[in-house]
Write a structure and sequence with these properties.
Radius of gyration: 31 Å
Largest sheet: 13 strands, mixed
Number of strands: 16
Structural class: alpha+beta
Distance between the termini: 74 Å
Oligomer: single chain
Number of helices: 16
Length: 525
Protein backbone atom coordinates (compact mmCIF):
# COMPACT_ATOMS: atom_id res chain seq x y z
CA UNK A 1 0.00 0.00 0.00
CA UNK A 2 2.85 2.42 0.83
CA UNK A 3 4.47 1.67 -2.51
CA UNK A 4 1.17 2.25 -4.35
CA UNK A 5 0.75 5.58 -2.58
CA UNK A 6 4.30 6.64 -3.45
CA UNK A 7 3.74 5.76 -7.12
CA UNK A 8 0.41 7.65 -7.14
CA UNK A 9 2.05 10.77 -5.71
CA UNK A 10 4.83 10.58 -8.28
CA UNK A 11 2.33 10.23 -11.14
CA UNK A 12 0.29 13.21 -9.92
CA UNK A 13 3.44 15.35 -9.56
CA UNK A 14 4.27 14.55 -13.18
CA UNK A 15 0.82 15.88 -14.26
CA UNK A 16 0.03 18.87 -12.01
CA UNK A 17 -2.58 20.28 -14.37
CA UNK A 18 -4.51 17.02 -14.35
CA UNK A 19 -4.21 16.72 -10.55
CA UNK A 20 -5.42 20.27 -9.85
CA UNK A 21 -8.31 19.98 -12.33
CA UNK A 22 -9.43 16.65 -10.88
CA UNK A 23 -9.23 17.83 -7.27
CA UNK A 24 -11.10 21.09 -7.89
CA UNK A 25 -13.78 19.26 -9.85
CA UNK A 26 -14.37 16.88 -6.96
CA UNK A 27 -14.14 19.71 -4.42
CA UNK A 28 -17.12 21.39 -6.10
CA UNK A 29 -19.21 18.21 -6.18
CA UNK A 30 -18.42 16.94 -2.68
CA UNK A 31 -18.57 20.43 -1.13
CA UNK A 32 -22.02 21.05 -2.59
CA UNK A 33 -23.30 17.73 -1.27
CA UNK A 34 -21.79 18.33 2.18
CA UNK A 35 -23.51 21.72 2.45
CA UNK A 36 -26.88 20.43 1.28
CA UNK A 37 -26.72 17.38 3.52
CA UNK A 38 -25.86 19.49 6.56
CA UNK A 39 -28.85 21.75 5.88
CA UNK A 40 -31.06 18.71 5.27
CA UNK A 41 -29.84 17.17 8.51
CA UNK A 42 -30.52 20.34 10.52
CA UNK A 43 -33.91 21.15 8.99
CA UNK A 44 -35.50 17.79 8.19
CA UNK A 45 -33.67 14.86 9.78
CA UNK A 46 -32.86 16.22 13.24
CA UNK A 47 -35.76 16.44 15.71
CA UNK A 48 -36.29 19.29 18.14
CA UNK A 49 -33.49 19.24 20.70
CA UNK A 50 -35.44 17.88 23.68
CA UNK A 51 -35.35 14.49 25.44
CA UNK A 52 -37.31 11.71 23.71
CA UNK A 53 -38.29 13.94 20.80
CA UNK A 54 -39.76 10.97 18.93
CA UNK A 55 -42.82 11.10 21.21
CA UNK A 56 -43.41 14.83 20.69
CA UNK A 57 -46.15 15.89 18.25
CA UNK A 58 -47.77 19.14 17.20
CA UNK A 59 -51.56 19.28 17.04
CA UNK A 60 -52.83 20.80 13.79
CA UNK A 61 -56.27 22.21 13.13
CA UNK A 62 -57.51 21.48 9.60
CA UNK A 63 -53.88 21.03 8.46
CA UNK A 64 -52.91 24.38 9.98
CA UNK A 65 -50.91 24.62 13.23
CA UNK A 66 -52.89 27.41 14.91
CA UNK A 67 -55.29 26.78 17.80
CA UNK A 68 -57.27 28.95 20.17
CA UNK A 69 -56.47 28.95 23.86
CA UNK A 70 -59.96 27.78 24.86
CA UNK A 71 -59.79 24.85 22.42
CA UNK A 72 -56.35 24.02 23.80
CA UNK A 73 -57.75 23.87 27.34
CA UNK A 74 -60.48 21.47 26.19
CA UNK A 75 -57.99 19.25 24.37
CA UNK A 76 -55.61 19.30 27.33
CA UNK A 77 -58.29 18.37 29.88
CA UNK A 78 -60.28 15.84 27.83
CA UNK A 79 -57.70 13.84 25.88
CA UNK A 80 -56.67 10.34 27.01
CA UNK A 81 -53.63 9.77 24.78
CA UNK A 82 -51.16 12.52 25.70
CA UNK A 83 -49.02 12.64 28.81
CA UNK A 84 -49.24 16.41 28.61
CA UNK A 85 -50.28 19.09 26.14
CA UNK A 86 -48.68 22.50 26.19
CA UNK A 87 -49.19 25.63 24.11
CA UNK A 88 -46.88 28.42 23.01
CA UNK A 89 -46.65 31.25 20.55
CA UNK A 90 -44.02 33.56 19.09
CA UNK A 91 -44.58 36.95 20.64
CA UNK A 92 -43.55 39.74 18.92
CA UNK A 93 -40.91 42.24 19.53
CA UNK A 94 -41.21 43.58 23.07
CA UNK A 95 -39.31 46.30 24.90
CA UNK A 96 -36.91 44.98 27.53
CA UNK A 97 -35.48 47.29 30.18
CA UNK A 98 -32.92 45.71 32.50
CA UNK A 99 -32.00 48.92 34.24
CA UNK A 100 -29.78 50.28 31.49
CA UNK A 101 -30.62 51.02 27.90
CA UNK A 102 -33.89 49.49 26.73
CA UNK A 103 -33.79 47.12 23.78
CA UNK A 104 -36.13 44.90 21.82
CA UNK A 105 -36.41 41.13 22.09
CA UNK A 106 -38.54 38.36 20.60
CA UNK A 107 -39.92 36.03 23.31
CA UNK A 108 -42.22 33.03 23.45
CA UNK A 109 -45.51 33.10 25.30
CA UNK A 110 -45.81 29.62 26.83
CA UNK A 111 -48.20 27.75 29.04
CA UNK A 112 -47.08 26.97 32.57
CA UNK A 113 -46.41 23.32 31.73
CA UNK A 114 -44.26 24.13 28.68
CA UNK A 115 -40.87 23.19 30.12
CA UNK A 116 -42.23 20.25 32.13
CA UNK A 117 -43.85 18.80 29.00
CA UNK A 118 -40.57 19.07 27.08
CA UNK A 119 -38.61 17.46 29.90
CA UNK A 120 -35.65 19.85 29.97
CA UNK A 121 -33.77 21.21 32.97
CA UNK A 122 -32.73 24.84 33.57
CA UNK A 123 -29.14 26.00 33.32
CA UNK A 124 -29.69 28.47 36.14
CA UNK A 125 -32.52 28.95 38.63
CA UNK A 126 -35.80 27.29 37.76
CA UNK A 127 -38.52 27.28 35.12
CA UNK A 128 -42.07 28.49 35.65
CA UNK A 129 -44.67 25.74 36.10
CA UNK A 130 -48.40 25.23 35.85
CA UNK A 131 -48.63 25.58 39.63
CA UNK A 132 -47.43 29.19 39.27
CA UNK A 133 -50.59 30.14 37.36
CA UNK A 134 -53.68 31.24 39.23
CA UNK A 135 -55.53 33.26 36.64
CA UNK A 136 -54.63 36.15 34.36
CA UNK A 137 -51.44 38.09 35.24
CA UNK A 138 -50.72 35.73 38.13
CA UNK A 139 -47.23 34.55 37.09
CA UNK A 140 -44.97 37.62 36.62
CA UNK A 141 -41.92 35.56 35.69
CA UNK A 142 -39.56 35.27 32.75
CA UNK A 143 -37.02 32.60 31.72
CA UNK A 144 -34.06 33.80 29.64
CA UNK A 145 -32.50 31.88 26.80
CA UNK A 146 -28.84 31.03 27.28
CA UNK A 147 -27.82 33.21 24.31
CA UNK A 148 -29.73 36.23 25.63
CA UNK A 149 -28.32 35.74 29.13
CA UNK A 150 -24.81 35.41 27.71
CA UNK A 151 -25.13 38.45 25.44
CA UNK A 152 -27.07 40.86 27.66
CA UNK A 153 -26.14 39.78 31.18
CA UNK A 154 -22.58 38.62 30.44
CA UNK A 155 -22.97 35.25 32.17
CA UNK A 156 -23.97 36.85 35.48
CA UNK A 157 -25.08 33.99 37.74
CA UNK A 158 -26.82 36.49 40.01
CA UNK A 159 -29.41 37.32 37.38
CA UNK A 160 -31.95 34.96 38.98
CA UNK A 161 -34.42 36.95 41.05
CA UNK A 162 -33.64 40.23 39.31
CA UNK A 163 -36.63 42.32 38.10
CA UNK A 164 -36.90 43.31 34.44
CA UNK A 165 -39.41 45.51 32.61
CA UNK A 166 -41.16 43.93 29.61
CA UNK A 167 -43.20 46.58 27.78
CA UNK A 168 -43.06 48.64 30.99
CA UNK A 169 -44.48 45.73 33.05
CA UNK A 170 -42.26 44.26 35.77
CA UNK A 171 -41.42 40.56 35.61
CA UNK A 172 -38.90 38.58 37.64
CA UNK A 173 -36.15 36.47 36.07
CA UNK A 174 -36.49 33.00 37.55
CA UNK A 175 -34.09 31.00 35.41
CA UNK A 176 -31.96 30.50 32.31
CA UNK A 177 -32.60 27.78 29.73
CA UNK A 178 -29.82 25.31 28.80
CA UNK A 179 -27.44 26.32 25.97
CA UNK A 180 -28.66 23.71 23.49
CA UNK A 181 -32.34 24.60 23.82
CA UNK A 182 -33.54 27.16 21.26
CA UNK A 183 -37.27 26.76 21.61
CA UNK A 184 -39.74 24.49 19.88
CA UNK A 185 -39.28 25.77 16.31
CA UNK A 186 -36.03 25.06 14.51
CA UNK A 187 -35.92 28.33 12.61
CA UNK A 188 -36.71 30.72 15.48
CA UNK A 189 -34.54 31.39 18.52
CA UNK A 190 -36.50 33.20 21.26
CA UNK A 191 -34.76 35.53 23.68
CA UNK A 192 -36.96 34.50 26.60
CA UNK A 193 -40.11 32.69 27.68
CA UNK A 194 -43.02 34.48 29.38
CA UNK A 195 -46.00 32.68 30.98
CA UNK A 196 -49.02 32.91 28.71
CA UNK A 197 -51.21 34.17 31.54
CA UNK A 198 -49.13 37.37 31.43
CA UNK A 199 -50.30 38.22 27.92
CA UNK A 200 -52.86 40.87 29.08
CA UNK A 201 -50.16 42.70 31.05
CA UNK A 202 -47.40 42.41 28.45
CA UNK A 203 -49.43 43.01 25.29
CA UNK A 204 -52.23 45.16 26.68
CA UNK A 205 -55.02 42.85 25.53
CA UNK A 206 -56.28 39.34 26.24
CA UNK A 207 -56.60 37.10 23.19
CA UNK A 208 -57.00 33.99 25.34
CA UNK A 209 -60.70 34.48 25.98
CA UNK A 210 -61.78 34.29 22.32
CA UNK A 211 -62.34 30.79 20.92
CA UNK A 212 -62.14 32.10 17.38
CA UNK A 213 -58.65 33.53 17.88
CA UNK A 214 -56.46 30.77 16.43
CA UNK A 215 -52.97 32.10 17.13
CA UNK A 216 -51.35 29.46 19.36
CA UNK A 217 -49.32 26.33 18.71
CA UNK A 218 -50.17 23.17 20.65
CA UNK A 219 -47.81 20.22 21.14
CA UNK A 220 -47.44 17.34 23.54
CA UNK A 221 -46.00 13.92 24.29
CA UNK A 222 -47.87 10.71 23.62
CA UNK A 223 -48.34 8.26 26.43
CA UNK A 224 -46.21 5.07 26.25
CA UNK A 225 -47.68 2.60 23.76
CA UNK A 226 -50.01 5.13 22.12
CA UNK A 227 -49.68 5.57 18.34
CA UNK A 228 -50.15 8.77 16.41
CA UNK A 229 -53.29 7.31 14.76
CA UNK A 230 -54.83 6.57 18.15
CA UNK A 231 -54.05 10.06 19.38
CA UNK A 232 -55.55 11.60 16.24
CA UNK A 233 -58.76 9.61 16.69
CA UNK A 234 -58.94 10.68 20.34
CA UNK A 235 -58.50 14.36 19.45
CA UNK A 236 -61.12 14.19 16.71
CA UNK A 237 -63.61 12.68 19.16
CA UNK A 238 -63.09 15.79 21.28
CA UNK A 239 -63.29 17.89 18.11
CA UNK A 240 -66.72 16.47 17.27
CA UNK A 241 -67.92 17.46 20.73
CA UNK A 242 -66.48 20.95 20.31
CA UNK A 243 -68.21 21.33 16.95
CA UNK A 244 -71.59 20.60 18.55
CA UNK A 245 -70.98 22.85 21.55
CA UNK A 246 -69.40 25.76 19.64
CA UNK A 247 -70.67 25.54 16.04
CA UNK A 248 -69.70 29.11 15.22
CA UNK A 249 -65.98 28.63 15.91
CA UNK A 250 -65.41 24.86 15.68
CA UNK A 251 -67.83 23.55 13.06
CA UNK A 252 -66.24 20.76 11.02
CA UNK A 253 -62.92 20.96 12.90
CA UNK A 254 -60.48 18.12 12.25
CA UNK A 255 -57.23 17.57 14.14
CA UNK A 256 -54.07 16.00 12.75
CA UNK A 257 -50.59 15.41 14.16
CA UNK A 258 -47.28 16.59 12.74
CA UNK A 259 -43.69 16.75 13.87
CA UNK A 260 -42.80 20.04 15.58
CA UNK A 261 -39.92 22.21 14.51
CA UNK A 262 -41.21 23.67 11.25
CA UNK A 263 -44.68 24.84 12.32
CA UNK A 264 -46.05 21.38 11.63
CA UNK A 265 -46.82 20.64 7.99
CA UNK A 266 -47.17 24.31 7.08
CA UNK A 267 -43.41 24.69 6.62
CA UNK A 268 -42.42 21.06 7.14
CA UNK A 269 -43.95 19.78 3.89
CA UNK A 270 -42.48 22.48 1.61
CA UNK A 271 -39.13 22.29 3.42
CA UNK A 272 -38.88 18.53 2.90
CA UNK A 273 -39.81 18.83 -0.79
CA UNK A 274 -37.37 21.69 -1.34
CA UNK A 275 -34.51 19.88 0.39
CA UNK A 276 -35.19 16.70 -1.58
CA UNK A 277 -34.94 18.67 -4.82
CA UNK A 278 -31.80 20.42 -3.63
CA UNK A 279 -30.21 17.11 -2.65
CA UNK A 280 -31.04 15.72 -6.10
CA UNK A 281 -29.36 18.68 -7.80
CA UNK A 282 -26.28 18.33 -5.57
CA UNK A 283 -26.15 14.63 -6.43
CA UNK A 284 -26.31 15.48 -10.14
CA UNK A 285 -23.41 17.91 -9.71
CA UNK A 286 -21.31 15.15 -8.14
CA UNK A 287 -22.36 12.67 -10.83
CA UNK A 288 -21.33 15.13 -13.53
CA UNK A 289 -17.99 15.58 -11.77
CA UNK A 290 -17.48 11.81 -11.66
CA UNK A 291 -18.37 11.50 -15.35
CA UNK A 292 -15.88 14.24 -16.17
CA UNK A 293 -13.15 12.57 -14.13
CA UNK A 294 -14.01 9.22 -15.66
CA UNK A 295 -13.28 10.70 -19.07
CA UNK A 296 -10.04 12.21 -17.81
CA UNK A 297 -8.89 8.93 -16.28
CA UNK A 298 -9.82 7.03 -19.46
CA UNK A 299 -7.78 9.47 -21.53
CA UNK A 300 -4.95 9.23 -19.01
CA UNK A 301 -5.02 5.44 -19.24
CA UNK A 302 -4.86 5.68 -23.04
CA UNK A 303 -1.85 8.00 -22.85
CA UNK A 304 -0.14 5.48 -20.57
CA UNK A 305 -1.06 2.49 -22.73
CA UNK A 306 2.50 1.67 -23.78
CA UNK A 307 3.75 2.03 -20.22
CA UNK A 308 1.03 -0.36 -19.07
CA UNK A 309 1.88 -2.80 -21.89
CA UNK A 310 5.56 -2.84 -20.94
CA UNK A 311 4.72 -3.49 -17.30
CA UNK A 312 2.44 -6.37 -18.30
CA UNK A 313 5.05 -7.79 -20.65
CA UNK A 314 7.65 -7.65 -17.87
CA UNK A 315 5.44 -9.70 -15.57
CA UNK A 316 3.41 -7.17 -13.60
CA UNK A 317 0.01 -8.43 -12.58
CA UNK A 318 -3.09 -6.67 -13.88
CA UNK A 319 -4.51 -6.54 -10.35
CA UNK A 320 -1.47 -4.63 -9.13
CA UNK A 321 -1.82 -2.08 -11.94
CA UNK A 322 -5.52 -1.65 -11.16
CA UNK A 323 -4.72 -1.21 -7.48
CA UNK A 324 -2.26 1.54 -8.31
CA UNK A 325 -4.85 3.27 -10.51
CA UNK A 326 -7.44 3.05 -7.75
CA UNK A 327 -4.91 4.39 -5.23
CA UNK A 328 -4.34 7.39 -7.48
CA UNK A 329 -8.12 7.89 -7.83
CA UNK A 330 -8.69 7.60 -4.06
CA UNK A 331 -5.86 10.06 -3.37
CA UNK A 332 -7.33 12.59 -5.81
CA UNK A 333 -10.79 12.04 -4.36
CA UNK A 334 -9.72 12.43 -0.72
CA UNK A 335 -7.78 15.62 -1.37
CA UNK A 336 -10.63 17.02 -3.48
CA UNK A 337 -13.14 16.01 -0.82
CA UNK A 338 -11.07 17.71 1.90
CA UNK A 339 -10.92 20.92 -0.14
CA UNK A 340 -14.66 20.77 -0.83
CA UNK A 341 -15.44 20.08 2.81
CA UNK A 342 -13.29 23.02 3.94
CA UNK A 343 -15.20 25.33 1.63
CA UNK A 344 -18.50 23.78 2.68
CA UNK A 345 -17.72 24.29 6.38
CA UNK A 346 -17.06 27.99 5.73
CA UNK A 347 -20.39 28.30 3.90
CA UNK A 348 -22.23 26.46 6.69
CA UNK A 349 -20.78 28.74 9.37
CA UNK A 350 -21.99 31.71 7.34
CA UNK A 351 -25.47 30.21 6.94
CA UNK A 352 -25.66 29.47 10.68
CA UNK A 353 -25.02 33.12 11.51
CA UNK A 354 -27.14 34.51 8.67
CA UNK A 355 -30.40 36.23 9.58
CA UNK A 356 -32.51 36.69 6.42
CA UNK A 357 -34.73 39.24 8.16
CA UNK A 358 -32.74 41.89 10.08
CA UNK A 359 -33.50 42.33 13.77
CA UNK A 360 -35.52 39.11 13.76
CA UNK A 361 -34.11 35.93 15.39
CA UNK A 362 -34.87 33.73 12.40
CA UNK A 363 -31.98 31.46 11.50
CA UNK A 364 -31.19 27.77 11.42
CA UNK A 365 -27.89 26.49 12.88
CA UNK A 366 -26.48 24.22 10.18
CA UNK A 367 -22.97 23.82 11.55
CA UNK A 368 -21.39 20.56 10.37
CA UNK A 369 -21.36 17.61 12.72
CA UNK A 370 -19.92 14.11 12.60
CA UNK A 371 -22.61 13.08 10.11
CA UNK A 372 -21.48 15.76 7.65
CA UNK A 373 -17.86 14.62 7.80
CA UNK A 374 -18.88 10.97 7.42
CA UNK A 375 -21.04 11.72 4.38
CA UNK A 376 -18.19 13.69 2.78
CA UNK A 377 -15.80 10.76 3.35
CA UNK A 378 -18.23 8.21 1.93
CA UNK A 379 -18.91 10.40 -1.11
CA UNK A 380 -15.18 10.79 -1.69
CA UNK A 381 -14.59 7.02 -1.59
CA UNK A 382 -17.65 6.28 -3.74
CA UNK A 383 -16.57 8.89 -6.28
CA UNK A 384 -13.09 7.36 -6.44
CA UNK A 385 -14.62 3.98 -7.25
CA UNK A 386 -16.93 5.48 -9.88
CA UNK A 387 -14.31 7.28 -11.95
CA UNK A 388 -11.34 5.13 -10.93
CA UNK A 389 -12.82 1.94 -12.35
CA UNK A 390 -13.65 3.48 -15.74
CA UNK A 391 -10.35 2.34 -17.31
CA UNK A 392 -10.47 -1.03 -15.51
CA UNK A 393 -11.80 -3.05 -18.46
CA UNK A 394 -9.30 -1.33 -20.71
CA UNK A 395 -6.45 -2.60 -18.54
CA UNK A 396 -7.96 -6.03 -17.90
CA UNK A 397 -8.46 -6.83 -21.61
CA UNK A 398 -5.42 -5.11 -23.02
CA UNK A 399 -3.12 -7.18 -25.28
CA UNK A 400 0.40 -6.10 -24.26
CA UNK A 401 2.07 -7.26 -27.49
CA UNK A 402 -0.35 -5.40 -29.73
CA UNK A 403 -0.15 -2.33 -27.48
CA UNK A 404 3.65 -2.34 -27.79
CA UNK A 405 3.45 -2.57 -31.59
CA UNK A 406 0.61 -0.12 -32.29
CA UNK A 407 -0.05 1.73 -29.02
CA UNK A 408 -3.60 0.30 -28.80
CA UNK A 409 -5.61 -2.68 -29.92
CA UNK A 410 -8.53 -2.31 -32.28
CA UNK A 411 -11.01 -3.70 -29.81
CA UNK A 412 -9.55 -1.66 -26.99
CA UNK A 413 -9.71 1.48 -29.12
CA UNK A 414 -13.34 0.83 -30.01
CA UNK A 415 -14.21 0.08 -26.37
CA UNK A 416 -12.40 3.18 -25.12
CA UNK A 417 -14.25 5.34 -27.63
CA UNK A 418 -17.57 3.84 -26.47
CA UNK A 419 -16.88 4.47 -22.77
CA UNK A 420 -15.70 8.03 -23.28
CA UNK A 421 -18.57 8.76 -25.64
CA UNK A 422 -21.08 7.54 -23.05
CA UNK A 423 -19.43 9.61 -20.32
CA UNK A 424 -19.56 12.69 -22.53
CA UNK A 425 -23.26 12.14 -23.20
CA UNK A 426 -23.90 11.76 -19.47
CA UNK A 427 -22.07 15.01 -18.75
CA UNK A 428 -24.03 16.89 -21.40
CA UNK A 429 -27.36 15.53 -20.12
CA UNK A 430 -26.62 16.35 -16.48
CA UNK A 431 -25.31 19.82 -17.30
CA UNK A 432 -28.41 20.49 -19.42
CA UNK A 433 -30.62 19.58 -16.44
CA UNK A 434 -28.59 21.74 -14.04
CA UNK A 435 -28.49 24.75 -16.39
CA UNK A 436 -32.22 24.48 -17.12
CA UNK A 437 -33.04 24.21 -13.40
CA UNK A 438 -30.88 27.24 -12.65
CA UNK A 439 -32.50 29.30 -15.40
CA UNK A 440 -35.98 28.34 -14.19
CA UNK A 441 -35.07 29.29 -10.60
CA UNK A 442 -33.60 32.64 -11.68
CA UNK A 443 -36.60 33.34 -13.90
CA UNK A 444 -38.95 32.58 -11.01
CA UNK A 445 -37.00 34.90 -8.72
CA UNK A 446 -37.10 37.72 -11.28
CA UNK A 447 -40.83 37.28 -11.78
CA UNK A 448 -41.46 37.29 -8.02
CA UNK A 449 -39.49 40.54 -7.65
CA UNK A 450 -41.67 42.16 -10.31
CA UNK A 451 -44.99 40.68 -9.22
CA UNK A 452 -48.13 42.74 -8.81
CA UNK A 453 -48.34 43.30 -5.06
CA UNK A 454 -51.74 44.96 -5.21
CA UNK A 455 -50.19 48.26 -4.15
CA UNK A 456 -47.52 50.61 -5.42
CA UNK A 457 -44.39 50.33 -3.24
CA UNK A 458 -42.45 53.15 -4.91
CA UNK A 459 -42.15 56.53 -3.14
CA UNK A 460 -43.58 54.99 0.02
CA UNK A 461 -41.87 55.09 3.38
CA UNK A 462 -42.76 52.75 6.21
CA UNK A 463 -42.36 53.78 9.84
CA UNK A 464 -42.64 51.03 12.45
CA UNK A 465 -43.83 51.85 15.94
CA UNK A 466 -44.10 49.81 19.14
CA UNK A 467 -46.58 51.71 21.30
CA UNK A 468 -47.26 48.93 23.78
CA UNK A 469 -43.51 48.63 24.20
CA UNK A 470 -43.45 52.28 25.26
CA UNK A 471 -46.09 51.65 27.89
CA UNK A 472 -49.19 52.98 26.09
CA UNK A 473 -52.46 51.28 27.00
CA UNK A 474 -55.21 50.32 24.57
CA UNK A 475 -57.15 53.43 25.62
CA UNK A 476 -54.20 55.68 24.82
CA UNK A 477 -53.37 54.16 21.43
CA UNK A 478 -55.95 55.97 19.22
CA UNK A 479 -54.91 59.43 20.39
CA UNK A 480 -51.20 58.70 19.92
CA UNK A 481 -51.80 57.15 16.51
CA UNK A 482 -53.75 60.24 15.44
CA UNK A 483 -50.87 62.45 16.53
CA UNK A 484 -48.39 60.37 14.54
CA UNK A 485 -50.54 60.53 11.43
CA UNK A 486 -50.93 64.28 11.73
CA UNK A 487 -47.20 64.73 12.25
CA UNK A 488 -46.37 62.60 9.20
CA UNK A 489 -48.93 64.42 7.06
CA UNK A 490 -47.31 67.74 7.94
CA UNK A 491 -43.95 66.71 6.42
CA UNK A 492 -43.33 68.64 3.16
CA UNK A 493 -43.82 66.42 0.11
CA UNK A 494 -46.16 63.90 1.77
CA UNK A 495 -49.35 63.33 -0.22
CA UNK A 496 -51.08 60.60 1.80
CA UNK A 497 -50.75 58.94 5.18
CA UNK A 498 -52.27 55.69 6.43
CA UNK A 499 -52.15 53.35 9.40
CA UNK A 500 -52.29 49.56 9.67
CA UNK A 501 -51.77 46.98 12.41
CA UNK A 502 -49.82 44.68 10.10
CA UNK A 503 -48.20 45.13 6.74
CA UNK A 504 -48.16 42.45 4.00
CA UNK A 505 -45.67 39.65 4.70
CA UNK A 506 -44.85 41.10 8.12
CA UNK A 507 -43.84 38.82 11.00
CA UNK A 508 -45.49 39.19 14.37
CA UNK A 509 -45.77 42.89 14.00
CA UNK A 510 -45.66 45.91 16.18
CA UNK A 511 -48.55 47.90 17.46
CA UNK A 512 -48.79 50.17 14.45
CA UNK A 513 -47.24 51.13 11.15
CA UNK A 514 -47.39 54.50 9.46
CA UNK A 515 -47.27 54.80 5.68
CA UNK A 516 -46.07 58.07 4.18
CA UNK A 517 -46.54 58.39 0.44
CA UNK A 518 -44.50 61.05 -1.29
CA UNK A 519 -44.15 62.20 -4.87
CA UNK A 520 -40.73 63.66 -4.10
CA UNK A 521 -37.60 62.32 -2.55
CA UNK A 522 -37.37 63.32 1.11
CA UNK A 523 -35.61 62.25 4.28
CA UNK A 524 -37.42 61.60 7.57
CA UNK A 525 -36.45 63.95 10.39
Amino acid sequence: MTNDLRIALRQLRKSPGFAVTAMLTLALGIGANAVVFSVLNAVVLKPVNVPHAQNLYMVQRDRFPSQSYLDYVDLRDQNRTFESLMTYNILGPVGVDTGGNASTAWPYLASGNYFDALGIQPYLGRFFHATDEHGMNSAPYVVLSYAYWHGHFHDDAGVVGRPVLINKKQLTIVGVAPPAFRGTELFFSPAMWIPMVQQPAVQGYNAMEFRGNHSLFVAGRLKPGVTAAQATADLNTIGASLAKTYPTDDEGVKFTLARPGLVGDMLGGPARAFMAGLMLLAGLILLAACANLGSLFAARAADRAKETALRLALGSKRGMILRQMLTEAVLVSLVGGALGLAGGVAILHFLSAWQPIPDTPINVPVNPDAGTYLVALLLALASALLFGLVPARQVMRADPWQLIRTGMSGTAGQRRFTVRDILLAVQIAICAVLVTSSLVAVRGLVRSLHSNFGFEPHNVMLVGTELHMAGYTDEQLPQMQRRMLDAAAAIPGVTAVGYADHTPLSLGGGDSFVYTDSTTDFRPT
